[in-house]
Amino acid sequence: MSFETISLLLNWVQLGVLLAILFRLGHTFALIANTQRELRRAINRLGEQCAAEPINAFGRPGTASTPRSWWTPVQTDDTIDVDDLTPQSP
């Protein structure tokens, strides 16, 4: 094989590798966008749930019949459950 043939073959291999990298990078960006969208949905859903539930004197969801005094500690639960991260059907 001559030098020109080998050089042309290597150029085609380089082009194939570059296209494969770009294709994989496109899938990575799509995965990041989907993850961001699902996290945004979970945060919005948690915000709606927190706004709909009254908070009692202990900082927990329930009836807000007991007035909160200055010495009552406020306990918040900032954990995200596995169910909050599952995909939602449209």
**Shape assignment:** rod-shaped
Q: Give the structural class.
A: mainly alpha
Poorly predicted runs are none
Strand residue percentage: under 5%
Major sheet, described briefly? none
Number of helices: 1
Number of strand segments: 0
* Average pLDDT: 78
Q: What order do the SSEs take from the amino end to the carboxyl end, as H and E?
A: H
Give the CA-CA distance, first to last residue. Answer: 58 Å
Radius of gyration: 27 Å
Instruction: Tell me the helix content.
Output: 55-70%
Give the topology.
Blueprint: H1 3-52
Q: What's a concise summary of this model?
A:
The protein is mainly alpha-helical.
What does this structure look like?
This protein has about 90 residues and is mainly α. It has a domain at about 25-50. About 55% of the residues lie in helices and about 0% in strands. The protein is built from one helix and no strands. It has one helix at about 5-50. The longest helix is centred in the first third of the chain and has 50 residues, at about 5-50. The radius of gyration is 27 Å and the shape is rod-shaped. The N and C termini lie far apart (about 60 Å). The model has no long low-confidence stretch (mean pLDDT about 80).
